[in-house]
Fold this protein.
Amino acid sequence: MATAPDLQSLKVDYKRNPMLPWPFQIRRVKHETEDTFTLELQPQGDLEEFTFLPGQFNMVYAFGVGEIPISISGDPANPRTLVHTTRAVGSVTKAMDKMRRGDILGIRGPYGTPWPIDQANGKDVVFVAGGIGLAPLRPALYEVVTHRDRYGKVVLLYGTRTPTDVLFRQELEHWRARFDLEIYVTVDRAMSGWRGNVGVVTNLIPRAPFDPRDTMAFVCGPEVMMRFTTMELHKRGVDNENIFVSMERNMKCAVGLCGHCQFGSVFVCKDGPVFQYSQIKDMLVKWEI
Amino acid sequence: MEDLKKILTEHTFFKELGEEYFALIVGCASNVRIDAGKMIHREGEEANHFYLIRSGKVTLQLMTPNKGPLIIETLGEGDILGWSWLVPPYTWHFDAKALELTRMIALDGKCLRNKCENDHNLGYELLKRFADIITKRLESTRLQLLDIYGDRS
């Protein structure tokens, strides 16, 4: 597995060179589900803290394998530990899945637009997550929980495949036990032992406890799920201007130069990944852009 | 009876239904209470009711060989359970079980079918409402079939 590069030879300010990965050491590996894992990383060399905004992503480089964009899933209030949660599906994430404590990854970032949490002050906040889409939303949830008194009702609607695919289970239980958070989990299918909800996440929207006229909604998941979720939120009465979605595209340079992630007139890496829904809704239903 | 009428008129399912129909519908309605773990109906049984869930949680499930019951959907407060009473041969297509103590208003489908045959306006009003529910369930089922959470990295 990858080893640490000679830090003395890296006499570069990583913040001034957005194309240069900085070494981070894996401090903890946690297997969340059968195919999903979380890595806790610590910056190496003279970089002590890694600050980011909820919703931003990093380019994560598994040396000798490749580099991919992954959203940050940790707490922005803890800049000494960088956290990424991902599924082992491609060559890079499969290589990462085999890494252990002490191994080194290269990190470039943080990049992209954040969830506009500051605009939700005084309003109800609804998070709608599908599958691994809960990971990019978790930093925003941390932020809202930390400053709970700034917001009205806070609701998380989370849909995933089966009960064994539920991410961050302990944290969800912890949040569910609080009286000031509404946490609803649903799965697409389950066997008879499951006592929770079964059905798509959009089914939870009509009766979720929030005031649609004064709500900001943050949505992250597969595009199909986001399309139907935004339709249901709109039906409930939430304005498209108050709905934000996180897009995923094949990002390469992450700084808006290479064009890999071009989505109509925008670059997902630079203008996104978080977009106001009204900004991109017409493009979501086009066959080709 | 007055209580039942109040509950039915306030339920979104009957929203904007003509006042003249409520006497007919209330005549077909009764309160039911199902304890946690009890079956409400089983696949293949005669479907003579539908239910407005007032509280609790109901699972719609399908018995599968070797694996046991597979839960298709859960329904809760405010949801409508059952439309097989409306479509021949009037038999349930899934099992329904109370996951927790569940209180519902049962509407006698046989009684309503007769009333709908005699008054097509009432039949049309009910069909419009059930078509909406069936459409939503079909949409949900299609999304479930897509298995959309399987491929996102």
